[in-house]
From TrEMBL:
Its cofactor is Zn(2+). Acetyl-CoA carboxylase is a heterohexamer composed of biotin carboxyl carrier protein (AccB), biotin carboxylase (AccC) and two subunits each of ACCase subunit alpha (AccA) and ACCase subunit beta (AccD). Residues 25-292 form the CoA carboxyltransferase N-terminal domain. Its EC number is 2.1.3.15. Zn(2+) binds at residues 29, 32, 48, 51. It is an enzyme of class 2 (transferase). This is Acetyl-coenzyme A carboxylase carboxyl transferase subunit beta. It catalyses: N(6)-carboxybiotinyl-L-lysyl-[protein] + acetyl-CoA = N(6)-biotinyl-L-lysyl-[protein] + malonyl-CoA. Belongs to the AccD/PCCB family. Binds 1 zinc ion per subunit. GO terms for molecular function: transferase activity. A zinc finger (C4-type) spans 29-51.
């Protein structure tokens, strides 16, 4: 019998318990591999201090970062039928929806809120990539229509923050129908003489890019965001050619006139304030004419 291992060690273990460290204590940057203290990473709005990589964030963080003092009020959104086509692949669509709702705490892939930006009443719609890849289904379409109606009622600019892989395949043609519906919603805002501003984040692809994501009066992109219709791998396989470095990234699109500016996340609120101030000044005579 070993007195130290059989008697002393068990009693010491009870007195001195191993301190457990939380699983999310550190974050590893997806771009450079730098280990970042998670609390610092969140405080930096999930931007890597080493390489500047912009990680994905949800609607809650977006609202807090863009509205003045983070003060905002959620806009109630219409409910839609969860599984109109009774779709099933390897898993029932209803089960996928339940999983996404449990993980994200949201009912679908978009949230809408109203508040002030630079003192100007504004409406922001934010897609949530963490909810089924931010895919556009009937709920997203209804939410954008509701956001447009709210902006018109408040005579406020509408800001759309995109983050999506495209249309939701589980809703088939019904998801594709949201492309013309959201286009009409954007036209409603513009006909009311109000600004429609789009903030393109990583990734913005598919049917979202082919509709409301590229209809803004001003397009602002975050650094390094993937923006396009088909992905670069699909394009390379189709044309059988190597694409240029940085193809479909924010900076490439800026050079080729597809976006108006690329803005660091920390400077986004300030840029948005300036753009809203300029556009609302430009649109103010329209309000006077409408009032008369």
């Amino acid at each position: 019998m070993n007195w130290l291992t059989d008697y002393v060690k068990p009693r010491l273990s009870k007195v001195i318990r191993k301190r457990e460290s939380p699983d999310n204590l550190w974050h590893k940057c997806k771009a450079c591999g730098q280990m970042i203290f998670h609390r610092d990473f969140v405080a930096a709005q999930k931007v890597c201090a080493n390489c500047g990589h912009h990680d994905r964030v949800g609607p809650k963080e977006r609202f807090e970062a863009l509205f003045d003092e983070g003060i905002h009020q959620k806009v109630d959104l219409p409910t839609v039928k969860d599984d109109p086509l009774k779709f099933r692949d390897t898993k029932r669509y209803t089960d996928r929806m339940k999983d996404a709702r449990n993980k994200s705490g949201d009912t679908d892939a978009i949230q809408v809120a109203k508040g002030k930006i630079g003192g100007v009443e504004s409406v922001i719609a934010v897609q949530n990539f963490f909810f089924m890849g931010g895919s556009m289904g009937m709920a997203v379409g209804e939410a954008i229509v509701r956001a447009a109606e709210e902006a018109i009622a408040l005579k406020a600019p509408l800001i759309m923050v995109t983050a999506a892989g495209g249309a939701r395949m589980q809703e088939g043609i019904l998801s594709l129908m949201q492309m013309p519906r959201t286009t009409v919603a954007v036209d409603m805002v513009k006909e009311a003489g109000l600004p429609y501003i789009v903030i393109l984040t990583d990734p913005t692809t598919g049917g979202v890019t082919a509709s409301y994501a590229m209809l803004g009066d001003v397009h602002i992109a975050e650094p390094g965001a993937l923006i396009g219709f088909a992905g670069p791998r699909v394009i390379e396989q189709t044309i059988r050619e190597k694409l240029p470095d940085g193809f479909q990234r924010s900076e490439y699109l800026l050079e080729h006139g597809m976006v108006d500016m690329v803005v660091h996340r920390h400077e986004l609120r300030g840029a948005l304030r300036r753009v809203i101030s300029l556009l609302m000044e430009k649109h103010r005579p329209v309000f006077h004419q409408a009032a008369q």
